[in-house]
Amino acid sequence: MGKRTLGLVLSSGGARGTAHVGVLKVLEAEGLRPDIIVGVSMGAEVGGLYAAGVELSRIESLWQSASFARVARHLRPTWPWFGWSSGRAIRAFAHSIVGDCRIEELPIRFAAVTTDLETGQPIVVTQGNLADTIRASLSVPGLFTPAWLHDRLCIDGGVSSPLPVGVARDLGAECVLAVDVLVDPTEVKLPGVPGIRKRGTSTSSARPRYRPTVFGVLFQMSTVFQKRLARMSLEQHPPDILLQPDFSHDPPCYSRVGCGIEAGELAAKQALPAIRAAVGG
Q1: pTM (two decimals)
Q2: CB-CB contact of 99 with 74 (8 Å)
Q3: Residues marked as catalytic
Q4: What's the first-to-final CA gap in the chain, in angstroms?
Q5: Is 151 left (phi over 0), alpha (psi -120 to 50) or beta?
Q6: What is the pLDDT of residues 174-204, one digit of tens each?
Q7: Is the dihedral of CA 44, 55, 26, 265 positive or negative?
Q8: Which of 133, 160, 231, 272 is deepest in the core (most CB within 10 A)?
């Protein structure tokens, strides 16, 4: 029996998307180069660069050199206020690495998922300018302005399809390895301020009250619906292998991403026997 066509699905997940780099490092070292890559949001950036032939060492170096200053340059407010940032710096960053290459010409078959703002439906992008597509898939609502792509107004793909296993199957993947780096709502420590306890309320056993900030509530809302969408997707289109890197001890952030890469490497190494068995050959 020959080697099965391997599809790699990289979820959205913000700074946790650095784990995708770690997973790819292990696969490459083992000679398990994916035939198909499907990416969403940060997964679209990592997957798109790799599919374009950018060496993993360079992708890792780009992540490792991240800093608050670099992130801040990507978040200059727009005027009028259509979003916190225009997203032009994100597009320029991707273009500086891959130039004007087109998705349909990449050495590895690639698809990115974004969301049609007007219909709410996921858009699977398999043709067109790669840098433009990465920028569209990364258009986090409120953070980056929506992006026009193929005459459709697009926002972050994680809004509608954070873990699109079915897309990899549709593109011909016989074996699908899905990497879920989404935040679980139970992991979030909601920021807030102490609430005022009513008179007569016992303080001996009652749980301390607090009022979470508006940004804390909005972030938690996002984690809840994205995780639920991912679970529904996994039920409808179960992958052959599901990796869920453990970030509990040292969650990555944009200014410190090494721990995220290591979490991805560890998850992939632990699953190697199952991955080899699933791919065959």
Answers
A1: 0.85
A2: no
A3: 41, 156
A4: 6
A5: left
A6: 999 999 999 876 776 766 655 555 555 555 5
A7: negative
A8: 133
